[in-house]
Amino acid sequence: MIRGGDIAKGTCLLQKGQPFIVVEREFVNPGKGGAFARVKMKSLRDGSVLTQTIPTQLEVEDAQVDTHSCQ
């Protein structure tokens, strides 16, 4: 599990049962209410893009993705 405040570009997350990689993230700290991260993610399966607003204290599931270089 990873907290919303610890999400960085390149992090792999599980959303809706699919692995996503974070393409963009922006932290917003409004004058009223708690801070949150606005995250743009790309699906590793079909390439669809998902934009979500995640509170910094909320824990989301990180995906275990193995990468290796090919020739």
Key traits:
elongated; SH3 type barrels; mainly beta; two-stranded antiparallel sheet
The general outline is elongated
At CATH level 3, the topology is: SH3 type barrels
Helical element count?
0
* Percent range for β-strand residues: over 45%
Instruction: Please identify the top-level CATH class.
Output: Mainly Beta
Indicate how many domains the architecture comprises: 1
Distance between the termini: 33 Å
Major sheet size, sense and barrel closure:
4 strands, antiparallel
Can you put this structure into words, describing what you see?
By secondary structure, the chain is mainly beta. The protein has one domain (2-60): SH3 type barrels. The protein has strands spanning 2-3, 12-15, 18-28, 36-43, 49-55, 59-60. The chain has a 4-stranded antiparallel beta sheet with strand order 2-3-4-5, with no helix packed on it. Strand 4 and strand 5 form a beta hairpin. The radius of gyration is 13 Å and the shape is elongated. The N and C termini lie far apart (33 Å). The model has no long low-confidence stretch (mean pLDDT 89).
